């Protein structure tokens, strides 16, 4: 008797940016990574592909030369994977999962992509003009390469669609808001979903049993209040500009600043957009958006760097307090992403003075550098403070694989 053919278990995760494609190939039989890579400067001078197989000798490979468009980029990715015996034509490939930044209100879960889904993603371009177009190009290219394979969209905004209307609505005219889809959508959703669930596991509880404040602190930064596994508030809004102080983004600012700059400084809407998104935040305050460099400058007595750090922490602490109030009971405050996982001074400063809320960090535990999820609060602390490395690619792969094996999950 012929042995049954095993079900395919591999998922290729694609994150298509305007001039780049990040990718990872994972085996969902055990969650292991088979290969990772990046194509950058697509359509520009100095295009480069960096590919690392994670089985065999694991030797990193690079290729340089013109990469005209995303189709050429994905063809090059396919060639590198094939060289390792992991090609896109492999019968072990179950699906391709795509990170899509904006899913609006319609997409609340991972979704198998067809022309109707693509059309809706295109309709959302006005609220995600920098991200959704690139995501669409990556999807269409992958569909051309493997038209027979399930292509799944996993949306950054989906995790936040559980927010109540009181949290999602802006206090502006309802008809205007509805006509132009103006509301708070939130971003970094795959990270917040993954980290909140892993925090529950770290505490030895089910996600439904815990309330968590997640602080995703990278060059982009966002906070979320997660009650029993469901997001009830998040700091980013219609766009990723709202909320925390970030590397180059201002975060919360009085909307009238825009009108003031138009009237007094004669700035255009595009110039103000550039100011708030690319010349603000830490880089606007002190000229640097690398927290390591800012801390080095502080140690040397640099007052601008010290001010930038203080503004960053002040905003972060305000959101911790606000989300504590939203949740009512907090089981853990968790730090993740590049700054959250690696900058011990940020974690220490963010909870300093919040002892009455049950928050504290143990200096020795906080100083430990590790890739493992860990609690850094002392045993007596009423609320756990944790560091949980995020893994957005694994989250996308998990959601993609679960959907193609159980289509009933799609909503």
Features:
alpha/beta; eight-stranded mixed β-sheet; six-stranded mixed β-sheet; 14 strands; globular
Can you walk me through this structure?
By secondary structure, the chain is α/β, with parallel strands linked by helices. It is built from 15 helices and 14 strands. It has an eight-stranded mixed β-sheet with strand order 5-4-3-2-1-6-8-7, sandwiched between helices. Strands 11-10-9-12-14-13 form a six-stranded mixed β-sheet, sandwiched between helices.
Helix content: 25-40%
Low-pLDDT runs = none
Number of strands: 14
The tally of helices reads: 15
Q: How are the strands of the largest sheet arranged? A: 5-4-3-2-1-6-8-7
- Beta-strand content estimate: 15-25%
Main sheet specs: 8 strands, mixed
- Overall geometric form: globular
Rg, nearest Å:
22 Å
User: What structural class is derived from the secondary structure elements?
Assistant: alpha/beta
State the end-to-end CA separation.
40 Å
What's the multimeric state? single chain
- The helix/strand series, from N terminus to C terminus, equals EEEEEHEEHHEHHHEEEHHHHHEHHHEEH
The overall average pLDDT, rounded, is 93
Question: How do the strands and helices of this protein lay out in sequence?
Answer:
Layout: E1 10-16, E2 20-27, E3 32-40, E4 48-53, E5 61-64, H1 70-83, E6 93-100, E7 111-112, H2 115-123, H3 132-145, E8 151-155, H4 165-168, H5 174-179, H6 189-202, E9 211-217, E10 221-227, E11 230-234, H7 256-264, H8 269-278, H9 281-286, H10 291-299, H11 303-327, E12 332-336, H12 337-342, H13 344-351, H14 363-367, E13 374-375, E14 384-387, H15 392-405
Parallel strand pairs: 1-6, 6-8, 9-12, 12-14
Antiparallel strand pairs: 1-2, 2-3, 3-4, 4-5, 7-8, 9-10, 10-11, 13-14
């Amino acid at each position: 008797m012929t042995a049954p053919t095993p079900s395919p278990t591999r998922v290729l995760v694609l994150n298509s940016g305007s001039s780049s494609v990040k990718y990872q190939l994972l085996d969902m039989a055990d969650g292991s990574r088979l290969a990772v890579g990046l194509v950058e400067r697509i359509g520009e001078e100095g295009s480069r592909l960096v590919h690392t197989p994670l089985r065999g000798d694991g030797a990193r490979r690079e290729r340089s030369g013109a990469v005209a468009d995303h189709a050429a980029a994905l063809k090059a990715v396919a060639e590198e994977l094939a060289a390792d015996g992991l090609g896109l034509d492999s019968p072990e490939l179950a699906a391709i999962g795509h990170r899509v930044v904006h899913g609006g209100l319609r997409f609340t879960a991972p979704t198998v992509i067809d022309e109707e889904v693509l059309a809706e993603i295109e309709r959302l371009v006005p609220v995600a003009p920098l991200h959704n177009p690139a995501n669409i190009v990556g999807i269409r290219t992958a569909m051309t390469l493997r038209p027979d394979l399930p292509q799944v969209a996993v949306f950054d905004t989906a995790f936040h669609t559980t927010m109540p209307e009181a949290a999602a609505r802006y206090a502006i005219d309802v008809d205007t808001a509805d006509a132009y889809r103006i509301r708070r959508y939130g971003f970094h959703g795959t990270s917040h979903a993954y980290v909140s669930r892993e925090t529950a596991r770290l505490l030895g509880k089910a996600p439904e049993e815990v309330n968590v404040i997640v602080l995703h602190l990278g060059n982009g930064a966002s906070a979320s209040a997660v009650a029993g596994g469901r997001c009830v508030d998040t700091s980013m809004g219609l766009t990723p500009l709202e909320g925390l102080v970030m590397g180059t983004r201002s975060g919360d600012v009085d909307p009238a600043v825009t009108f003031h700059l138009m009237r007094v400084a004669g700035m255009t809407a595009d110039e103000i957009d550039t100011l708030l998104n690319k010349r603000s935040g830490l880089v606007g305050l002190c000229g640097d958006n690398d927290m390591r460099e800012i801390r080095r400058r502080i140690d040397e007595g640099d007052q601008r760097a010290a001010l930038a750090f203080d503004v960053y922490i002040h905003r972060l602490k305000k959101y911790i307090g606000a989300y504590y109030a939203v949740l009512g009971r907090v089981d853990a405050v968790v730090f993740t992403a590049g700054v959250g996982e690696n900058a011990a001074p940020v974690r220490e400063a963010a909870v300093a003075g919040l002892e009455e809320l049950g928050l504290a960090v143990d200096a020795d535990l906080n100083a430990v550098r590790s890739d493992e999820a860990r609690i850094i609060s002392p045993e007596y602390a009423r609320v756990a403070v944790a560091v949980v490395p995020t893994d957005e690619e694994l989250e996308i792969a998990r959601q993609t694989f679960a959907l193609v094996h159980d289509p009933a999950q799609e909503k």
